[in-house]
Write a structure and sequence with these properties.
heterodimer; A: alpha+beta; Ubiquitin-like (UB roll); Fumarate Reductase Iron-sulfur Protein, Chain B, domain 2; 2 domains; 5-stranded mixed β-sheet; 39% helix; 12% strand; elongated; B: mainly alpha; 9 helices; binds FE2/S2 (inorganic) cluster
């Protein structure tokens, strides 16, 4: 569009800044559970949201409403609210992080819902992600998988030190794409087997493809897969639901790479146990 | 646990067992089909009976067949163990609303149902083995003439079975389950082996479609052909098997 006179621009802007946003009346069917021991159930709440709100802002509206009614607000996790911390875990209408692909719950906007819609909101459900309260689950199993090898043992310096090592472009890109994993756990939540292969493989792929990480690649993959199994995650059956729901669109080619790495590390490394 | 046991019982090791046994079983399906298509030779069963005599008499093939039974059992039991493990990993509280989307519609739907499809195929196998293999091992099968030499008349046995509509129906159900199982299984076997590559994955997926369509359709063609295209049997042979005659 050719930008017209400043007057029409002004008019456009004016429209944007008025509060003429469509309001939407929503029914939320939301999972409430006091703690891991007590039984949970769905609770229905009406909320009036605006279409430019993020999903979490809509939940904020609900919680303010609950607080003013002197009721317990819904517990949900959030931190960055810009798609990088990976804490805003919940299943919205059957999809971890909602229907949109490549976004987290905090990046999901209410304009993707319809006025009058009923939205089901549940916690991530997996044996290895025990529920803490309402929508909050304990994802520390992921931390323990990282502790089992998802690191480089020596000090690799600051960014300039990293940039001083030339890495082939495609490999660098592949490593970077894998490094985009924010450890949110949506892959586990989406998987019919509750498998953590996408997460673990993203970490394995990220580090194995950089010169600093390559040195420990064999021990790393053995340790991380072992921990992943010990945490009780399910066995991947290549459904690929993880890739479809991952907010960072991590590819299952990383799982294939981890399989290769694991097979060769098991058969050829000098790790005897 | 020694490293090898640990490797084989790890999540990736268990999947490796599924992958390798699965690929072996697919290669068996191809060989088995090539032999059985002789049932449609329209020569009164000479080609098929001669082939069956060779297959049951040859010691090398006998040894391979025991390997095959072992592979089927391994694939089935490992599959069952994985199903239990995954059910447990899912936890006790189920989603009220859950949508599973994946990279490929058909493969993803099949992937979710691999255990059910596998069970259907196993049930089919039991019927199939009970009807032919068990009957052949335990009963006196009438003899026929294979180019001057005597041989068991398995052709007539198969013919008699495939003239019964419920046997034909059971085969078709079995083959539909097999088609879906193969569509996902073939691709999945390569993914488990770590063979996911921009150069080869499209070809592997293409081959999965071909295998999933051609093998079951060709297998199903045999009972359909015998049921619809061949004349009713004039003398029904006295033979047992679980479907009898
Ligand atoms: S792989 Fe994707 S879905 Fe899984 S933890 Fe990482 S970012 Fe989340
Ligand atoms: S709150 Fe940080 S990713 Fe959503």
């Amino acid at each position: 569009m050719i930008v017209g006179s400043s007057k029409s621009l002004q008019t456009d802007n004016c429209q944007l800044t008025t509060d003429n946003y469509s309001k939407m009346k929503l029914t939320l069917k939301i999972w409430r559970q006091k703690n891991a021991k007590s039984a949970g159930k769905f609770e229905s709440h009406q909320v009036v949201a605006e279409e430019h709100m993020s999903f979490l802002e809509m939940l904020d509206v609900l919680n303010e409403q609950l607080i003013s009614e002197r009721k317990e607000p819904v517990a949900f996790e959030h931190d960055c609210r810009e798609g990088i911390c990976g804490t805003c875990s919940m299943v919205i209408n059957g999809h971890p992080h909602g229907l949109m692909q490549g976004t987290t719950t905090c990046q999901l906007h209410m304009r993707h819902f319809k006025d009058g819609e009923t939205i089901a909101i549940e916690p991530f459900r997996a044996q290895s992600f025990p529920l803490i309260k309402d929508l909050v689950v304990d994802r520390s199993a992921f931390d323990r998988i990282i502790q089992a090898g998802g690191y480089i043992s020596v000090n690799t310096g600051q960014a300039p030190d990293g940039n001083a090592i030339p890495i082939e472009k495609d490999q660098a890109l592949d490593a970077f794409n894998a490094a985009a994993c924010i450890g949110c756990g949506a892959c586990v939540a989406a998987c019919p087997n509750s498998s953590a292969m996408l997460f673990t493989s993203a970490k394995v792929s990220h580090l194995a493809q950089t010169p600093q990480g390559e040195i420990e690649a064999q021990r790393r993959v053995l340790g991380m897969v072992n921990q992943m199994d010990e945490e009780g995650f399910g066995r991947c059956s290549n459904v690929t639901a993880c890739e479809a729901e991952c907010p960072k669109e991590i590819s299952v080619t990383n799982i294939a790479r981890m399989n290769r790495e694991y097979l060769s590390a098991s058969l050829t490394s000098d790790v005897m146990k | 646990m020694n490293w090898f046991t640990k490797f084989l019982t790890s999540s990736i090791g268990q999947k490796l067992v599924m992958s390798l046994t699965g690929l072996f079983l697919i290669s068996f399906l191809v060989v088995h089909l090539a032999g059985n298509l002789q049932l449609m030779a329209d020569d009164g069963g000479v080609a098929f009976n001669t082939y069956a005599k060779f297959m049951t008499g040859n010691p090398v093939i006998k040894t391979i067949s025991y390997g095959l039974y072992a592979m089927i059992l391994l694939h089935a039991f490992q599959g069952l163990a994985l199903w239990f493990k995954n059910r447990k990993a899912r936890g006790s509280e189920k989603y009220a609303v859950k949508v599973t989307r994946g990279a490929d519609g058909v493969a993803t739907s099949a992937a979710k149902q691999m255990a059910v499809l596998g069970t259907l195929i196993l049930a089919f196998l039991l019927i199939h083995m009970g009807d032919f293999w068990w009957a052949m091992k335990t009963e006196a099968v009438p003899m026929a003439d294979c180019g001057g030499e005597p041989c068991q008349d398995l052709y007539t046995k198969v013919y008699a079975s495939f003239k019964q509509w419920w046997v034909v129906a059971a085969y078709i159900v079995g083959m539909i389950a097999l088609a879906f199982h193969l569509r996902h299984g073939f691709w999945s076997a390569f993914q488990t082996l770590g063979w996911n590559h921009p150069k080869y994955t499209p070809a592997i997926n293409g081959a999965a479609w071909v295998i999933a369509l051609v093998l079951p359709v060709a297998y199903a063609a045999i009972p359909l052909y015998m049921y619809f295209a061949l004349p009713e049997m004039t003398t029904v042979p006295e033979m047992g098997g679980i479907f009898g005659s």
